Amino acid sequence: MTRAGWAADAPGVLVLPSGRTVRGRGLRRPIPAGPQPDFGLYLLGRPPPPTAWSSAWLRWPDFWLPSDRKAAVTAIRELHRRAPSERVEVACGGGVGRTGTVLAACAVLDGLAPDDAVRFVRRRYHRRAVETPWQRAFLRQLS
């Protein structure tokens, strides 16, 4: 795939320090208008509905951590790797805690320290992103 990423001003889009763009959203809300993702990473306690685009699912119950942390790190790295040339999104039910944690993980992969990544995502995506202490601990394991 050689498409560019999201427009920086599109709903839910976070521009990472490297310039990569990743869209975060909540699956309980309608999909934003505009182009569809090329790839989506979905963080739910059960499999998400099918999509018209390529996707991956991580079993990740609300307010907790992914059931398989090694698979989660692999999936997050894949999302980050695709972001420069594809429209990638990450989503959970509400689009805040789990989604914010993965967006912060992408910022860590971009070179930010975990605590700086949390502040970055809260400032630029959602003020309550990364909701739990164990989600913050998960980010420290990436660095």
Description:
It is built from four helices and five strands. It is α/β, with parallel strands linked by helices and 143 residues long. The chain has a single domain, classed as Alpha-Beta Complex (Protein-Tyrosine Phosphatase, Chain A), CATH 3.90.190.10. A five-stranded mixed sheet has the order 1-2-5-3-4, with helices on one face. The radius of gyration is 13 Å and the shape is globular. 43% of the residues are buried.
Question: What is shown here, in short?
Answer:
The protein has helices at residues 69-82, 97-109, 114-124, 133-142, and strands at 13-15, 21-26, 39-44, 54-59, 88-92. It is of the alpha/beta class and 143 residues long.
Quick tags:
globular; single chain; 143 residues; five-stranded mixed beta sheet; 4 helices; 5 strands; Protein-Tyrosine Phosphatase, Chain A; alpha/beta
Explain the layout of strands and helices.
Layout: E1 13-15, E2 21-26, E3 39-44, E4 54-59, H1 69-82, E5 88-92, H2 97-109, H3 114-124, H4 133-142
Parallel strand pairs: 2-5, 3-4, 3-5
Antiparallel strand pairs: 1-2
Helix pairs in contact: 1-2, 2-3, 2-4
